[in-house]
UniProtKB/TrEMBL annotation:
<dbReference type="Pfam" id="PF02789">
    <property type="entry name" value="Peptidase_M17_N"/>
</dbReference>
<keyword id="KW-0645">Protease</keyword>
<keyword id="KW-0464">Manganese</keyword>
<dbReference type="GO" id="GO:0030145">
    <property type="term" value="F:manganese ion binding"/>
</dbReference>
<dbReference type="InterPro" id="IPR023042">
    <property type="entry name" value="Peptidase_M17_leu_NH2_pept"/>
</dbReference>
<feature type="domain" description="Cytosol aminopeptidase">
    <location>
        <begin position="347"/>
        <end position="354"/>
    </location>
</feature>
<dbReference type="GO" id="GO:0006508">
    <property type="term" value="P:proteolysis"/>
</dbReference>
<dbReference type="GO" id="GO:0070006">
    <property type="term" value="F:metalloaminopeptidase activity"/>
</dbReference>
<dbReference type="InterPro" id="IPR011356">
    <property type="entry name" value="Leucine_aapep/pepB"/>
</dbReference>
<keyword id="KW-0963">Cytoplasm</keyword>
<dbReference type="InterPro" id="IPR000819">
    <property type="entry name" value="Peptidase_M17_C"/>
</dbReference>
<feature type="binding site">
    <location>
        <position position="272"/>
    </location>
    <ligand>
        <name>Mn(2+) 1</name>
    </ligand>
</feature>
<feature type="active site">
    <location>
        <position position="279"/>
    </location>
</feature>
<keyword id="KW-0378">Hydrolase</keyword>
<feature type="binding site">
    <location>
        <position position="267"/>
    </location>
    <ligand>
        <name>Mn(2+) 2</name>
    </ligand>
</feature>
<dbReference type="GO" id="GO:0005737">
    <property type="term" value="C:cytoplasm"/>
</dbReference>
<dbReference type="InterPro" id="IPR008283">
    <property type="entry name" value="Peptidase_M17_N"/>
</dbReference>
Length: 499
């Protein structure tokens, strides 16, 4: 799909635009946007609204053809709610999703969007939401289908109409939006790819490709090098599988050489069977998504690489499989992490924290400005927050509150929201072990919080936030598939940091 920015010259109105389908906004109580008003010279839009065929509520739509004195072949009316002066974010995103879906079933090859601005958001924001919505509709993972899904995707060209004085900014925003969806698409593709293809080696090769394409530095450590670093906690998870583990370091040094980097740490379990603490059968296929943290970190790197973001960002990805076997780690085994802290592994299914803790210790060497770890860490976060919000955890002090607020705001801006939950001393007590410095589980109560408390013990040398994306990184059921989250949140956060 080919996106572009268009402007109208000062004398023209939307009725002069030649296009397969012109998309304009209308409102409840039969109110019209400026673009719709220009199409209404003969009263056709008024008549359509009066007929009751469309309410104007957010998400409602109506297709009209062959309007007199209108150059466009078709007009798609999109409902944007009740207040023309205050189009809400929610109404706008709902409307562009409807537009993307209905246009892909039509014969129009090129479409033009002439939509009003959104309350409190700039044109760059509306462009980003539009590009994401149109991309979502045509995305498929069908590499392993002998007969490809037929996507109606007739829409080849999408033009977004903006005011002339906004054209330059809109073009930059469009390029950034395309970079963002390319990153999201990589994340979705990696997530949907099954564990017999998406192995730690495949993730490492993907990192190498990103490095070549966007001129980044890359280092892939193999088992021997991981052993030399004394990452015994990470290696304990990999003990039961024949699939070789990898430790990926990908560096985008777009800022000044001396600027402290942001480090993104992604959980890369390419399949989580639970290990000896084997998971139940139903739905276990979805544990191919347990590399969603790694996938979203790689997607974010791809996005900022294409944007040539002026910021230093380093991705650190521990990746392996969690499988049972005669060589697998047993419940009760004790390991010494890279940090020197010992861990009693009471449940081999609490493996994410075991690979992340060594990666978090490794991150110290970069003297980071901030470290953000991203992980499909706990089923419990789905109980707490459902599939709407990513869980956000950090220490409760001024510096960490500030970083948390920065990320929460980026999530809101990107329509990829997170919600903060507490950590602290009382929860930490649940991790007490009789035989080691800590246990790797804290009992059934507050499972996501005790997991975050475990990670926190390995992050005391820098400012850190943990994102639990187990509820947001993929969908189950009929719509099973990776969502591309939290690439929008992370990318927006990094863009805002780059200024
Ligand atoms: N990858 C899972 C978390 C998960 C489970 C995500 C279900 C999405 C759906 C993680 O490694 C895990 O197994 N966590 C355990 C922790 C428990 C053993 C303390 C869990 O959530 O059950
Ligand atoms: Mn697990
Ligand atoms: Zn897991």
């Amino acid at each position: 799909m080919d996106f572009s920015i268009k402007t109208l010259d000062a004398k023209s109105a939307s009725n002069t635009i030649k296009t397969g389908c012109l998309v304009v906004g209308v409102f409840e109580n039969k109110k019209l946007s400026t673009a719709a008003t220009a199409l209404n010279k003969k009263g056709a839009i008024d008549a359509a609204l009066k007929s009751g065929d469309m309410t104007g509520k957010a998400g409602s739509s109506l297709l009209l053809r062959g309007l007199a004195d209108v150059a466009a072949e078709r007009v798609l009316l999109l409902g944007l709610g009740d207040d023309p002066a205050k189009v809400s974010e929610k109404a706008f995103t709902a409307a562009v999703q409807v537009a993307a879906r209905s246009l892909n079933g039509l014969g129009a090859g090129d479409v033009t969007l002439a939509l009003p601005s959104v309350d409190g958001r700039d044109t760059a924001w509306t462009i980003r939401q539009t590009v994401i919505a149109f991309n979502e509709v045509v995305f498929r993972t069908d590499a392993h289908k002998s007969k490809k899904d037929t996507i109606p995707a007739n829409v080849k060209k999408v033009s977004i109409l903006v005011a002339a004085n906004e054209a330059a900014a809109a073009k930059t925003a469009l390029a950034q939006s395309i970079a963002l969806v390319n990153g999201m698409e990589l994340t979705k593709e990696l997530g949907n790819t099954p564990a017999n293809f998406c192995t730690p080696t495949h993730l490492a090769n993907t990192a190498k490709k990103i490095a070549t394409q966007f001129k980044m530095g890359v280092e892939i450590l193999d088992r021997k090098q991981i052993q030399a670093l004394k990452m015994n906690s990470f290696l304990s998870v990999s003990a039961g599988t024949d699939e070789p583990p990898k430790f990926i370091v990908l560096k985008h040094m777009g800022g000044k050489a001396k600027d402290a980097p942001v480090v993104l740490v992604g959980k890369g379990i390419t399949f989580d069977s639970g290990g000896i603490s084997l998971k139940a059968g139903p739905g276990m296929d979805e544990m191919k998504y347990d590399m969603g943290g790694a996938g979203s970190v790689l997607g974010t790197m791809r996005a900022i690489g294409e944007m040539k973001l002026k910021l230093n960002v380093i991705a650190v990805i521990p990746t392996c499989e969690n499988m049972p076997s005669g060589r697998a780690t047993r419940p009760g085994d004790i390991v010494t992490s890279m940090s020197g802290q010992t861990i009693e592994i009471l449940n081999t299914d609490a493996e994410g924290r075991l690979i992340l803790c060594d990666a978090l210790t490794y991150a110290e060497r970069f003297k980071p400005a901030a470290v953000i770890d991203v992980a499909t860490l706990t089923g419990a976060i789905i109980t707490s927050l459902g599939h709407h919000n990513t869980g956000l955890f950090t220490r409760h002090d001024a510096a960490h509150d500030k970083l948390a607020d920065e990320l929460l705001a980026a999530g809101k801006e990107a329509n990829d929201t997170a919600w903060r939950l507490p950590i602290g001393e009382l929860y930490n007590e649940q991790l007490k072990s009789n035989f080691a410095d800590m246990a790797n589980i804290g009992g059934p109560a507050a499972g996501s919080i005790t997991a975050a408390c475990f990670l926190e013990r390995f992050t005391r040398k820098y400012t850190w936030v943990h994102l639990d994306i187990a509820g947001t990184s993929w969908k189950s059921g009929a719509a099973k598939g990776a969502t591309g989250r939290p690439v929008p949140l992370l990318t927006t956060f990094l863009m805002n940091r780059a200024g």
